[in-house]
TrEMBL record, chains A, B:
It holds the Pfam family ThiF. This is Ubiquitin-like modifier-activating enzyme ATG7. One of its GO terms (biological process) is protein transport. SUPFAM superfamilies: Activating enzymes of the ubiquitin-like proteins. It comes from Raphidocelis subcapitata.
């Protein structure tokens, strides 16, 4: 019987990978798979051929990672696949491709034998892809396989007839309509597809009435029930009696006349193995204008080989016993070799930069810090008070951490001495009197990374001891106080990077009042301090009872920059010699302190307690605050102090001072009650802060104690010693 | 007698300060005076009036700081002055100007009474200037005073006669010639002036023969000898007998007809006080075409007040008793107030930038580090191997330290992920495939600071385990080895900032062979190491006896980056997953490590032992190496290791390893003997390095020892333990 037939040929499968697939892979690789090379289940989408010139290709998109129901497109079938994505080019090159093919064949064969493939015919079209993505360059190497099991003897074809001829008259139209309905192309089915149901299987049966060609689709599993054994193999004009004819119907990706597509191979083997069929008529459905085209679709009558008993058996070892399979895709020049795609030229430069910047951050989670919450820092809006040496250093490190919202506040212009130490400025920024620093820094950040949202505000921060000179200046200062408060409110973290002590007072107070993260960095000649400010207790901040501490036990709240001082900040700008006016600091200090300030923020934002995170070994009742071990970047110190002379660095912790001139409840209450008027008073007379906080009394008491001690010493001859001083030594800043 | 005379008026003195004076002041302030406000002796230069429209001004130039003989200009007199340069604008504003004037008057009065002013008449024209220079802005505020002592009663003038009338006929010419000769304006005198003799005094006596007007100049001190008492006061046609007439002669800066210049005032008081003269004839010399102009010069006959006995006396308190003085200069709008000059607009922007950059460095010496040798670092030519994250950070910190010679070596192009972490690049550098990094970094440095001499060399450093692929590649590698050796030879310090272990091998060996300072910085995920390499013994480096250590005792030589390893560097680029290929490091690490690397170099270059400086607590015979205390920036550690997790930093010291694959004598000898051929061998087979250094035997011995220990353990039941490992733990880099 088979002798008179010619070999049946199949049109090879082709893949079509949308860039969204690769970007989906890149993103999952970075965040999810990381170092794993375990196979990932994916879905490919296939339709019947729609053009006479090109086959339909197996489409992979970003939704290929989201299961078969993720993408519904009329007439499209979802095929199951596996992606094996290797970590290195070398691993890809030495991948066990034959083993992979054997394994895939075994699964298909098992699904055929178990009946699973009848229940879900898409299992016949399993595919897999081996891949390696160089995510730094958006360069992907990959190799698709569409395993087709090899039968013991070739399939041959007896006849191949266009549907329009096979079922003349209205019969062909009715058969085509049934095929369309099965594929979800009928109007009612479209609604079902839109509702998110699974795509139709790629194969079905068509039962065609012998008279008139009335047709209806049946699942593959109904072969026996549909009368397959009897009906298979005869045309409508065949001699198989008056019963309905049973065709296998497939959405055929092939565009070649009389040559069915590759997926048919496994279906034929199923028919031979499972149905023991020796002859099968297959309707290869091809489309035109979104419907089955009876002129291009055709029925092919196939002779199937007889499978010997035990063929494809393997006791207990499915892989070893499965039929061989073929089906590696060729590359674009027709060779059996991997394909390669360089997506970088598809992407906009700005998008490439964004992806590249995120890459390094996301890679941190692979091995180094799996629990790192990158977004916690990247989404933080940071306010930088000062766009000088420290401001530039902080901004650059923030950028590298993925931070996208940076606002600078500065009142200066770029001077000739700046660019060599302030890494956001160049020589040309100094010409003509110099650009205003804050906007220039913001623009420089955008030149480094166009996706950053940076802003520069030219503003002089109101300071204690610097009274406004007249009414207009006072009004301006009041507006500045409000503007600064608003800026602090609009940001998540405030960096205090100015070069005088008193300019840190107002932002320290405002950040405390709003419980914002505040981080101070300050330089000496060869030392620095970087510290975070403790926040006052949360709760009804406006109420007078806010002093009663809820969240943080008394004594465990961390201090601010001013907590170690027993004098209010005052005008330090007068009477300074040149070396005191300029930043006379070893040049290495600013990059170190700036980087540490950002890393301190990074560590803090990873801590579950946020602004209230305890410092390691923090004082107070319980000693070391718990929970540091949980934070992805480790414990979060309160203060880091370093010296370049000796290259030493230590972490220290200091508690909040109840009479602090910047963050104590007395000061915060006054601010809440009186607002800018209070600040203007402090500008005019820093002593008011000492009165308010009781420091004046402390001074008086200390003086009295000293006098008493001196008197006692005079009486006893012992050394009197000085008054008590709260806290520890401070750097000369 | 005085009743018929009119008041004598004087033309006020004016100053003219050349910018070179201010730059001289700025430079001395920074390097020499620093915080001192002690008065500085300076010299002003004055000539007779040369124009009818403007007076001659007291000129101050850069040479005003160098003593009266520093500047010789024909006809110019050197006047002694004092500069009081204040540290702050506030100190300037509250300077005791009256006190300064009193003190200057006292000195002049003392010099008059002691005869010092007769011996050196320039003492009569002492001046002083109070100043404050804002060296950041090249903005100077200053106030000159030309103290003129007030007589007990005003000077009056009896007659004022042009010289040409006073001495008719040839007499005026002869007198003028005598005045010119005194002032060094005669041809012979010019030669003397050029030879560096002191400028002529601003006053002299002229003895004029009664008949014919023959004239000769005499020093003021010869008043009595010249017959001053008798001759003074009569014109050539006067009635004072036939003896020669004695005139006082002065180079008159005044341009006003019949009005002598300010300096005459103190001379007249001298005549009244010291000579007891009641009448004096003064020749006020003014010039035209470089010679005394008899038409503009004039003789004024002055009545001097009688000084009461004891006038201007002050027993033991010269200042209190001295006559009052006047003479503050007015500002440009004629008010008695300081003048101000903003020199910044005179300077080229590039020069301004240079000065500004040096300012901060020089200010370090005022208080913070008086013994700092700024030039030691600024003049160092630095070679940066790697223009990535670390290379950019190192280059920027070098720039801030004043370093002017920076060469980058890199083989990469700027990628989209670079700018946010590599501070010399911006987004636009990534377009079109990216600029080559090394030249782009060099150009970026120049954009920051135009005076830097930066260069970028695109070169791939030959590496062990990366054999050349063919003969052409081998030839290229050989050329690269020679080029790198030459680069290292041409620089003073080498920074090893590449991102693989094996790329550091060749530069480590080459730097050791040339005893150059080599500094390594390397990053892990949240740790870094920064270290300097010990240099091999100096001496006849090429000879085979170089192994005998002369300068540094055995065991005290510091290790290099490879001294802790017992395996040779090999190709680490194969088989790396994405997170291993990319710099997965906390963004703060690179700025910290880069800055520390430069500060380590800064400290090292301040150490008298340079590359051989011992590390604090270095091992070996003597323990802690001496002399650290002497270095301006403190002790110079060998290695600095830091962790961001925990924010810790420690210094460590490690000795050189006699079997090191990079810096041991065996390796250096081989390099000296075989040159690039040896490097090519190591590229092909890193094992050759292990053979050469005896590490292979060490491995074999360790394996044998382990086996023996295992056998022993098997026999005794004890735990065998591993082989010996040299040195300490290393970061995974």
């Amino acid at each position: 019987m088979a002798g008179s037939a010619e070999l049946l040929k199949f049109c090879a499968m082709e893949s079509c990978v949308d860039p969204s697939f690769w970007s989906g892979l890149a993103s999952r690789k970075l965040d999810e798979y990381q170092l794993s090379e375990a196979p990932v289940e994916i879905t490919g989408y296939l339709t019947a051929s729609r053009h006479t010139e090109v086959p339909s290709q197996l489409l992979l998109t970003g939704s290929s990672f989201e299961g078969p129901g993720a993408r519904s497109s009329q007439g499209s079938h979802a095929l199951p696949g596996r992606l094996v994505n290797f970590n290195t080019q070398e691993n890809f090159a030495r991948a066990d491709a034959k083993g992979q093919m054997r394994e895939a064949a075994a699964r298909i064969w098992a699904d055929i034998r178990s009946g699973a493939a009848e229940a879900d015919p898409s299992l016949l079209s399993r595919f897999f892809v081996l891949a390696f993505g160089d995510l730094k360059r958006y360069d992907f190497t990959y190799w698709f396989a569409f395993p087709a099991l090899k039968p013991p003897a070739p399939f041959t074809q007896l006849a191949c007839t266009p549907l329009s001829e096979w079922a003349p008259g209205g019969a062909a139209e009715r058969i085509a309509a049934a095929a369309d309905a099965w594929r979800g192309l009928s109007p009612g089915a479209a609604a079902a597809a839109a509702a998110g149901s699974l795509p139709p299987p790629p194969f079905c049966l068509l039962s065609v009435a012998a008279a008139g060609g009335e047709a209806r689709a049946l699942p593959l599993a109904e072969w026996e029930a549909g009368g397959g054994a009897a009906a298979a193999g005869a045309g409508p004009d065949g001699a198989a009696g008056a019963g309905p004819r049973l065709l296998v119907c497939m959405s055929d990706p092939s565009h070649l006349a009389s040559v069915p597509g590759w997926p048919l191979r496994n279906l034929l083997l199923l028919a031979a193995a499972r149905w023991r069929a020796r002859r099968l008529s297959v309707l290869c459905v091809r489309d035109a204008r979104g419907r089955c085209d009876a002129a291009r679709s055709f029925v092919v009558d196939v002779n199937l080989p007889e499978l010997p008993d035990g063929w494809g058996d393997a006791a207990g070892d499915a892989a070893a016993g499965a039929p061989d399979a073929v089906g590696w895709e060729t590359n674009v020049v027709g060779r059996l070799a991997p394909r390669r795609v360089d997506l970088s030229n598809l992407m906009s430069p700005a998008a490439l930069a964004e992806q590249a910047v995120d890459l390094n951050l996301r890679l941190m989670r692979w091995r180094a810090a799996p629990s790192l919450d990158i977004a916690a820092l990247a989404s933080a809006r940071c306010l930088l008070l000062g766009a000088g040496t420290l401001g530039c250093a902080v901004a650059r490190t923030l950028l590298a951490w993925g931070v996208r919202g940076v606002t600078f506040v500065d009142c200066g212009r770029v001077a000739f001495s700046n660019p060599v130490r302030q890494s956001l400025f160049v020589f040309n920024d100094c010409l003509g009197g110099g650009l205003p620093k804050a906007p220039a820094a913001a623009e420089a950040l955008r030149a480094v990374f166009p996706s950053v949202s940076s802003k520069g505000v030219t503003m002089r921060i109101p300071m204690p001891g610097h009274p406004p000179e007249n009414a207009a200046a006072a009004a301006a200062a009041e507006a500045d106080v409000r503007a600064l408060d608003e800026l602090i409110s609009d940001h998540d973290a405030v960096f205090l990077l100015t070069d005088s002590r008193e300019s840190r007072w107002l932002p320290t107070m405002l950040a405390a009042a709003r419980r914002k993260v505040a981080i101070t960095a300050a330089l000496g000649f060869d030392g620095f301090v970087v510290m975070r400010h403790g926040a006052p207790p949360a709760g009804d901040a406006a109420g007078p009872s806010a002093g009663a501490d809820a969240a943080v036990p008394a004594g465990r709240r961390l201090g601010c920059y001013f907590c170690n001082d027993v004098v209010a900040p005052a005008n330090s700008a007068v009477d300074r010699t040149l070396d005191q006016q300029c930043t006379v600091a070893r040049p290495g200090l600013a990059p170190i302190a700036g980087a540490l300030a950002v890393e301190l923020l990074a560590a803090l934002l990873q801590h579950p307690a946020g602004v209230d995170a305890p410092a390691p070994g923090a004082g107070g009742a319980g000693g070391g605050g718990g929970g540091e071990g949980e934070a992805a970047l480790g414990p979060v110190p309160h203060q880091i102090r370093g010296q370049l002379s000796g290259f030493s660095q230590v972490c220290m912790t200091g508690a909040a001072f109840s009479q602090c001139t910047a963050c104590s409840e007395a000061v915060l209450s006054e601010w809440r009650a009186r607002g800018p008027a209070f600040v203007l008073e402090a500008m005019a007379s820093p002593g008011a802060l000492e009165e308010l906080t009781g420091l004046s009394q402390l001074h008086a008491a200390a003086a009295a104690a000293e006098e008493a001690a001196e008197a006692a010493a005079a009486a006893t001859g012992a050394d009197g010693g000085g008054g008590d001083e709260e806290g520890e030594d401070w750097l000369e800043l």
